[in-house]
Design a protein that fits this description.
Length: 184
C-alpha cells in the first residue's frame, strides 16, 4: 500500500483550511481510507469525491481527473483534446514549461469546462502564478485539489441525473486505487 501523507482525515482538513466546515459532523479521526468508506456509507459520494481531490498528492489528483476525462463517453472537442494533451504532457514530463503551457491554456479557455479545470490543476500544482520570473507568486496549496474537484464535478454533471451518484462512486473508487498503488 502507498504511504499516505496524512494519517487522519483531520490532518487533511488542517492542511487545507478551505475544507473547514465541509466535513463538520463527521469523525475526522479516521484514517483516510476509512473516512472515505464512511462518507460513502452515509450517502456522501459528493463529499468523498471532494475529499479525494485533496488527499491525493497533486500529481496523482491531476492524473485522476485526466483518466476520468479520457473515459468520458463523448469524444473531446478539438479545444478539449488540446487541453487534455497539455495535461498529459505535464504528467509525462512535470517540468516548468509543460506546467506553464497548461496553466496558460486553462486560463485562456473561454468555456472553463472540465478540461480547462484539468489544465488549471496542472498550472496550480507548483511553480509560479506570475508570468514574470522576477516576481514569483507560488500558488496556494489548495488550488490543485480545488481545480480537480471542480473538473470532476463538471464531468459528473454531464451524466444523466440517475447516474451521477454511481459516477461519483466510481470516481472515488479510482482515487482510492491511485492512493493504494501510488499513482501511475
Amino acid at each position: 500500500m502507498k504511504y499516505l501523507r496524512f494519517s487522519t482525515a483531520r490532518q487533511v482538513i488542517e492542511a487545507f483550511p478551505n475544507l473547514d466546515g465541509e466535513f463538520s459532523g463527521y469523525n475526522l479521526d479516521l484514517e483516510p481510507f476509512a473516512f472515505i468508506d464512511a462518507l460513502l456509507a452515509q450517502g456522501g459520494a459528493r463529499k468523498a469525491m471532494a475529499f479525494c481531490a485533496f488527499v491525493l498528492p497533486r500529481r496523482e489528483a491531476v492524473q485522476w481527473l485526466s483518466l476520468a476525462l479520457r473515459r468520458r463517453p463523448q469524444p473531446p472537442s478539438g479545444a478539449e483534446a488540446n487541453l487534455l494533451r497539455l495535461v498529459e504532457d505535464w504528467l509525462k514530463k512535470p517540468m516548468e514549461t509543460t506546467r506553464r503551457a497548461a496553466l496558460d491554456a486553462g486560463m485562456d479557455d473561454p468555456e472553463k469546462g472540465a478540461f480547462a479545470w484539468a489544465a488549471l490543476a496542472v498550472g496550480w500544482s507548483g511553480g509560479s502564478l506570475s508570468p514574470n520570473p522576477e516576481h514569483p507568486v507560488p500558488p496556494p496549496a489548495h488550488l490543485t485539489g480545488h481545480a480537480v474537484n471542480v473538473g470532476l464535478t463538471l464531468l459528473v454533471a454531464g451524466l444523466p441525473l440517475a447516474k451521477q451518484v454511481d459516477g461519483m462512486e466510481d470516481l472515488v473508487g479510482d482515487a482510492v486505487a491511485l492512493l493504494r498503488r501510488g499513482g501511475s
